[in-house]
Specification:
Layout lengths: L5 H6 L2 H21 L3 H23 L7 H21 L5 H27 L6 E10 L2 E11 L4 H28 L14 H21 L4 H19 L7 H23 L2 H24 L4 H6 L22 E2 L2 H9 L3 E6 L1 H6 L2 H13 L3 E6 L9 H8 L7 E3 H4 L8 E5 L8 H4 L18 E6 L19 E5 L2 H14 L1
Parallel strand pairs: 3-9, 4-5, 4-7, 5-6, 7-8, 8-9
Antiparallel strand pairs: 1-2
Helix pairs in contact: 2-3, 2-10, 5-6, 5-8, 5-9, 6-7, 6-8, 6-9, 7-8, 9-10, 12-18, 14-18
Length: 501
């Protein structure tokens, strides 16, 4: 009989641990549901965090868990780095923070897979069975001979190798995404030109060949490390050629990769928490990636093959640029008069609003307009900003009522009866070239059709193109007025002028 206390035996019982896992999974799902809307997102995040804490406790209660000192040290180090970073990050830097944290998850999965291979790699595909003859009643006489037959189950080897490959691709790809968003490396596509696809294919073949060899029974540490290196090069080679305009889709895709690799690690380790959490992240990330690709009228393979956006500006439409005519500049006072006498105003936020942290100023402008009985709403493009839901997060932070937010499909039919559309730094998602110019790199991408409004005011620092590097023909439309300057200052000046009218 065990000398452990009854309470300890109960806490470490398989039934109790699985009950904890079930509770944790229920909290994961409830937390994910909460993330469906800005008003419930914070609560949903906290619920999911409680679920993860319970899952961690359940894992640590397993009798076989050891190295508690190292576990506590790891948790302490992670908290010491992660909590201050998450609390102090600016909303404008949130996309790169998401990319960086996602990459850390993928890297952790790849390292776990490597450690597991070092521990069990010598038994991949084989284990020792002693030969003998049965004497009856289940008694076997050993003869001393032995043979090597299946060892670590093949499915564990497959999931471990899969986790190592996908985790490594996610880690290095996320680092490139972080570098582009942080402007450490250029946001434009960087590639080997026409040889890019050949390079990607060669790296993929090398990775798959090494993985198959390892699953088949190869016990070479050098081969495993070589597979990780090739996967790392593949992660860099896939993301470097992707242009900035596709970055929200890339972040979502890499997030899905990390989730799938975590689920594969859970299968290899027989850890239900990793399996369920990883599959939730992988499935939701895959769905979001597909939805965003559809919103840009682009296929995921075409994005992986290389995004658009190049060196400098590309003409948004035939005749755009220096031959497109002149732009009309306006002032805060003139913009205030236009807005004050409008019946309906639609605000179109973009990355320019995020950079200037202008969401609170925009909210004050909305309140001033509502005092004058002006109907105000916000048109949100699915890929506005640098990550999925970027604009929704910023506007929720400024307490913008959720019922004022309009998704693209709902907003577009309303532009024709809109008196003034106020565009704040949204470049590529308002470019009419997507509808009018077959030669444009963004042709076919659904956009917010602000050009249908009676008049348009664009707040922008300069005439430089957006993150996709494509010139916007909207700026040359005769009914468009450009208000140059920092978005926060410009919006505040308009609000001040409104108060004087």
């Amino acid at each position: 009989m065990s000398n452990l206390p009854v309470a300890t035996i109960f806490l470490q019982s398989e039934s109790f641990i699985y009950v904890l896992y079930i509770v944790a999974f229920a909290l994961f799902i409830q937390g994910l549901r909460g993330l469906a809307g800005p008003t419930t997102a914070v609560r949903g995040n906290r619920i999911a965090a409680v679920g993860m804490a319970i899952a961690v406790v359940a894992t640590l209660l397993n009798p076989g868990e050891g190295n508690w000192g190292l576990i506590v040290l790891g948790v302490a180090l992670g908290a010491a780095v992660g909590i201050p970073a998450a609390r102090n990050v600016k909303m404008t830097a949130m996309p790169q923070m998401v990319a960086l944290f996602n990459g850390v998850g993928g890297g952790a999965v790849a390292l776990i897979a490597w450690v597991e291979f070092r521990h069990y790699g010598s038994t991949y595909g084989s284990h020792t069975v002693h030969l003998g003859r049965e004497l009856g009643n289940g008694v076997v006489l050993q003869t001393g001979a032995s043979i090597q037959v299946g060892g670590v189950p093949t499915y564990i080897a497959i999931f471990s190798v899969f986790a190592a490959i996908v985790g490594s691709v996610s880690f290095w790809g996320s680092n490139i995404a972080f570098g582009k968003l942080q402007e450490i490396i250029p946001g434009r596509p960087i590639s080997f030109g026409s040889a890019q696809q050949i390079v990607n294919l060669v790296l993929l073949i090398l990775v798959l060949a090494a993985g198959v060899d390892l699953v088949a029974g190869a016990h070479s540490q050098l081969l495993f490390i070589g597979m990780l290196v090739c996967a790392a090069l593949l992660g860099n080679a896939v993301v470097l050629p992707i242009g900035g305009a596709d970055m929200p889709v890339v972040i979502s895709m890499l997030n899905a990769f990390t989730g799938l690799s975590a689920a594969a690690t859970g299968m290899a380790l027989n850890n239900p928490a990793l399996i369920v959490a990883g599959m939730i992240v992988g499935a939701s990330g895959s769905i979001l990636t597909n939805l965003m690709a559809v919103a840009m009228n682009r296929s995921i393979p075409s994005i992986i093959a290389g995004g658009f956006g190049g060196d400098g500006a590309v003409a948004g439409a035939e005749g755009a640029g220096e031959h497109a005519g002149t732009v009309r500049s306006t002032s805060a006072a003139d913009a205030a008069i236009q807005l004050a006498y409008a019946n309906r105003v639609v605000i179109v936020p973009g990355y320019g609003m995020a950079v200037a942290q202008a969401q609170h100023a925009v909210r004050e402008l909305t309140k001033e307009l509502e005092k004058r009985q002006v109907e105000v709403s916000y048109a949100i493009h699915p890929v506005a900003g640098r990550m999925p839901g970027h604009m929704n997060v910023l506007l929720a932070e400024a307490d913008v009522p959720y019922d004022q937010l309009r998704e693209m499909d709902d907003a577009n039919p309303e532009f024709q009866r809109t008196d003034v559309s106020l565009v704040i730094g949204a470049n590529d998602v308002t470019n009419p070239a997507a509808k009018t110019n077959p030669a444009s790199p963004i042709f076919g991408m659904p956009i917010l059709e602000v050009a249908d409004s009676h008049s348009v005011i664009v707040i922008k620092r300069s005439m430089n193109p957006g993150f996709a590097g494509i010139e916007n023909e909207l700026y040359f439309d005769p009914k468009t007025s450009m208000l140059f300057g920092d978005a926060k200052s410009a919006v505040s000046e308009i609000t001040a002028e409104l108060a004087l009218l």
